[in-house]
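User: Predict the complex with NAP.
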Amino acid sequence: MSAHLIDGKKVAELVKNEVKKAVDKIIDHGDEPPCLAVILVGDDEASKVYVGHKEKACALAGIRSLTYRLPHDTEQGALEGLITQLSEDPSVDGILLQLPLPRHLNKERAIDLINPRKDVDGLHPYNQGMLAGGRVGIFPCTPLGVMELIASTKTTIQGKIAVVVGRSMLVGAPVSHMLNHAGASVINLHSRSVNPWDLARMGDILVVATGVRHLVDRRWVKPGAVVIDVGIHRHDGKLTGDVNFEEARSIASHITPVPGGVGPMTIAMLLSNCVKAWNLKHR
Ligand code: NAP
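Assistant: Here is the predicted structure with NAP placed in the model:
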C-alpha cells in the first residue's frame, strides 16, 4: 500500500482564498482591512526570508502589513516599548514577534506584553490557557494548519487515538489540546518517553514535531494511520522531515510530504488569524 499524499499547498490555497473573501467583504463594507504589524529584531537570515513571505502573503490577501526592522543590539526596553505601543494602537489588529530573538532579549517578557486579542501567533499565555481550557482565543498557526490537513483527509477524529510526538508550546502542546478537544484520546510523547514507538504505533493519527530528522520510522506507524510531519530539515541540499517518508508511506493511509505538507499551512493560518483578530475587535 502507498499512502495518499496530503497536499498542503492545495489546502493552504483554499484557506487563503477564504481569507481573501473575508477581507474583500470587510473592505466592501467600508471598513479598513486587517492590519498586521511584524517585528523583526536582528539579522537572522531565515527570519528575514520568513518575514518576506509573510509580507507577500498579506499583500495578496489584501491584509495591510507593517514591518518593524530593529537592529540586533535593540534593548529589551525598546522592544517592549514598541510592543506596548502597537498593542494600544487601534489601527493595528495583529502583532507578530518574529522568533528567534537575539540571545540577549527575553522572549517571554516580550510576548507577555502583546495584547492577547492581537496575538496572531497564539503564543501569549492567555491564548495558551484559552486553548487548554477549550475556550475561544487565537491559537498557534502551525497547529491550526495541522488540524486543517487532518480535516482534508476526511478522517473522523472523534473516538480515535491520536499520538503527538513533541510537546513544545509552538507545536506539540497546542496540537495535543486541539486533538483532545476534537474528541481524540491523545498520547503525547517527548524526549523522555521510553520506547516511544510502542505507544506511537497505537495512533490512528500520528503528528510528529520533534526537530529530529527521520526520527519516526516504520516501527512508529500503525497500518492505515494518518501521518503529519511538521519537521523540516535541509539535508544534502534537500528538504526532509522528522518522519522517514519512504518507510512511513508504505504503512500509512495518508501522509504529508516535506516539502509541500505542513510548511505552506503556517502562513495561511497566520492570515486566517489576522481576520480572526480583526473580528475580535470589530464584531
Ligand atoms: P522544539 O521546541 O525543539 O520541541 C521539540 C519537541 O520534540 C520537544 O518537546 C522534545 O521533547 C521532543 N523531542 C526531541 N527529541 C525527541 C525524541 N528523540 N523523541 C521524542 N520526542 C523528542 O521544536 P518545535 O518548535 O516544536 O519544532 C519541531 C519541528 O517542527 C522542527 O523541525 C521545526 O523546524 C519544525 N517546525 C515546522 C514548522 C512549519 O511551518 N513547517 C513550524 C514550526 C516548527 P522535550 O520536551 O522532552 O525536550
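The longest strand covers residues 35-41.
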